[in-house]
Amino acid sequence: MYFSKTLAATALLSLLSLGSAAPAAAPEENTSSALTARAISGEFTWYHTGLGACGWTNSESEFVVALGHDRFDPETPNGNPNRNRLCGRRVRANYNGRTIEATVVDRCAHCQAGDLDLSPAAFRVFASQDAGRIRGTWDFI
Hints:
Layout: H1 2-21, H2 32-36, E1 40-46, E2 64-68, H3 69-72, H4 83-86, E3 90-95, E4 98-108, E5 116-118, H5 120-126, E6 134-140
Parallel strand pairs: 1-5, 2-4
Antiparallel strand pairs: 1-6, 2-5, 3-4, 3-6
């Protein structure tokens, strides 16, 4: 009996000392701030603004963007479309040393993953509309 109590106590102390040896690493959280820290590479095009998928009417002189359908359409884990949380979100776009900030107001049907469709005013900061398509980076802010 003495032996089994001593053995049990030793085992318990060993387990306790293992737990306090080094704290467990915290799981990485999938927060929007962690996701926004990464620049997304894609092509920038321009489009004629108007009534967008977010339900707002915008002018071509505003700094607004349409996100690619791959980001805009999928549902979030709770079943709501992304547009519920993406409309009105701000992005920072970069091209050739220039940066703009714009608001998400629409969905881009022809965009590929990572692409942005910019309003004419926003696109002209980077290049002539004649260029049609340029490659840049962007992220959520």
